[in-house]
Amino acid sequence: MGDAMNDDVMNGVVSGASATPRPVDPHLNIPTSALFRSLHQASGTFAMFGHQNETSNVIGTNTDSDVHAVTGTYPALWGSDLSGVERDETTNIDGFSMSDVRAELLRAYSMGAVTTMSWHSANPITFGGYGHNMAPGSVAAVLPGGARHGQFLEWLDRVAAFLDSVVDEASGESVPIIFRPFHEHTGDWFWWCTGSPAQPTDTTPEQFIALWRMTVDYLRDVRGLHNVLYAYSPDRSRIDMSSESTCEAGYLYAYPGDDYVDVLGFDDYWDIAPADIEAEQPHERHDDLITMLTVVGRLARERGKIAAATEVGSPGEFASQYVMSVEDKAALSGADCGACGAGGDGCFADSDGDVTGCDSCATSDSDCCGSGADGAGCDAGMAAVCAAELSEPIAATGPTGLPESGGLPGQTESTCPAESSRPSEPFGLSGLSDPVESSDPVEPAESSESSDPVEPAEPADPSDPVEPSDLAESSDLSDLSDVQSESDSPWTHYLLTAALANSDTRRVLWYMPWRNDPGAAGTGAYGTPVAGSKYAADFRRFTEHPFIRMANTLPPLY
Q1: Average pLDDT for the chain
Q2: Signal sequence: where (predicted)?
Q3: Would residue 184 show up in a list of annotated catalytic residues for this protein?
C-alpha cells in the first residue's frame, strides 16, 4: 500500500486503546442513531444470530422459516440482497421481488431485529452477474473520469431510492439498514475485487478505496440517505494467517479508512466449512477462526467500530470432527471467568437467570449482578446486560416480542437490581455521547486459499420445497434434545467456542450463515439445519446459549 493508504489505515490508532464510536454519517435518523449506540453498548455482552433470506429461502414444509421450525423463534439479524436494483429490475439476484424483500426487512424491524443488505451488483461494463462478474478496468470505469461513471451514479440513485423506501409506517422513518457493499474485495470473483497482496487483480487498493468513498459520499451527501451504517467485509480465504500481524495486514488491505466504515466485518467460509474437508485439519481451522475473530474484535475496539462475522459457513461435517479442548469446555460453561468481576471473562446466566461456571458469583442466594449496582460480582456478559449504566431492563416489550416479565429464555423474573429505577430507553442509549461530525446467490466456499469460488446453483423456486431428507441425514424430531456428543455438535463445539474464546472474540456482534438454498446443500455455503436433520438439535442448543441472541431474546435496540 502507498503512504497515503498507510496514513488512512493507521490514522489516530494506538494499539490497545479504545476509540470513541462515531458514525460515518453524523446526521443519522433517530432509529439508526439509536441502533448505532445500542450495538456499541452491546459489544462484548452477546452475539446475534443472523440469516440471509430468512423467510424467502425456506426448505421445510408448513413453516415460513427453517430457523423458526427448529428453534421456535426468528434470527436477531436478517439479511437480504440489493442486486438487480441498479439495473431497475423488479427482482433481485435470488429471484425475489423487491417488494417482497422490502416486506421481509420491515417484518424483521417490527420484531426488533436488525437488518442488513449486501449488493451483488452487475458488472458495469459487461452487465454480467455472479460467476461472470469480472472484466478488466471495471473499477476504473466507474470512478470520476471513467466511461461508466455517470451510469454508476444512476445505479447509486436506485440503490438510495430502495434503501430509503423501507419505511416504518408508525414513525414514518426509514428503517435502519446495515449496508455491506463491495464485500469480499480480497477475492477475485467480483468486479470490485482487488485480490490480495499475493494474488492481486487489476484493481488497485487505491482504486477500491476511491470507489468505496465515492459511494458513501454520494449516498450520504448527495442523496441524503441517513438510515445506513456501512459494513466492510473482506474475504478470509485470501488472508495470510502466518501470524496475527499478517492477518491484520491482510484484513486491512485496501481499507477505506475509519471515517468511511461503521462495521468491521469479514466473510469466512474457509475456516468453518471448507470444500475439501479431507485436506484440512479442524483444529488448525478453529485456531485460525479464533485468530480472525480476535483481530477483528480488537481492531473494532481500538477504532470505535462494531465487529461482525458478516457471512459464515454453516458448521457441519468438517466442524463436527473438532474435539473440544479444556479451554473450549471452560468457555462454554463460563468457567474461564477468573475473579468473575464485571470486567472479567466468561460466566453466563443460564436459562433461569442463574450465573453458571463461576463459584465466586454463582451462589444460591446471589442474583446475576451480585451486590453492586455497577455489576460487581457478575460475569462480563451479564454485568453489561444487567447493569451497564443501568440503562434499561433486559425484558423487552413492544416489537421485540419478549414477554413483559422475561429476558433470557425461561427467565421468570428479573435478576438485576434496581430494575424499576432504570429508564425504558433503547439498549445502551445512555452509554454513548451524541454522534459528532468527523472529518452472493451462494457465497463462495473456497477449496483452497488460491482457488476460485464454486459456481452457484440457480435459485430454487420457493414454491417447490425440498424435503429435509434430501439435504442432510435426517432423524425424528425427537432428536431435538439436550443429549449431545462431539460428533453431532458443530454449532456449539466449533463455532460457539471460537466466539467465546476471549474478550476480543466476544466483541464480534453477529454471525450470519447464507441462505437455505437447496442447490447449495452439502456445501459450506448452505445456511441452517432444517427440522429433523442431523445437526438441528445442536443448532437449537447454539441459539439457546445465553451468549447468543435471537429476535425474542434481544433487548430493545431502537
Answers
A1: 78
A2: none
A3: yes
CA–CA separation, 394 and 550 (whole Å): 13
H or E segment and range at residue 386: helix 380-387
Q: pTM here?
A: 0.78
Phi and psi of 498, rounded to 5°? -65, -40
pLDDT tens for each residue of 194-203: 999 999 999 9
Which of 184, 280, 419, 544 is labelled catalytic? 184
Contact between 320 and 494 (Cβ < 8 Å): yes
- Rounded CA-CA distance 400/409 in Å is 14
The answer to whether residues 543 and 499 touch, using CB atoms and an 8 Å cutoff, is no
The answer on pLDDT for 506 being more than 50 is yes
The reported pLDDT for the residue numbered 455 is: 36
Express each pLDDT in 423-453 by its tens digit: 334 444 433 434 333 334 334 333 333 344 4
User: What's the rounded Cα separation, in Å, for the pair 262 and 19?
Assistant: 13
Side chain identity at residue 474, one-letter code:
S
- Is-catalytic flag, 425? no
Cα 398 to Cα 142: distance, rounded to the nearest angstrom? 44
Cα separations (Å) of 118 from 78, 115, 246, 465, 497? Answer: 11, 11, 27, 25, 27
- Domain residue extents for the chain: 30-333+488-549
Half-sphere exposure (Cβ direction) of 31: Cα atoms closer than 13 Å? 22
What is the Cα–Cα distance from 469 to 531, expressed in whole angstroms?
10
- Please identify which of the residues 54, 248, 280, 311 carries the catalytic annotation: 311
DSSP 3-state assignment of 51? strand
Q: What is the pLDDT of residue 408?
A: 31
Q: Which of 128-132, 165-169, 284-288 has the lowest mean pLDDT?
A: 128-132
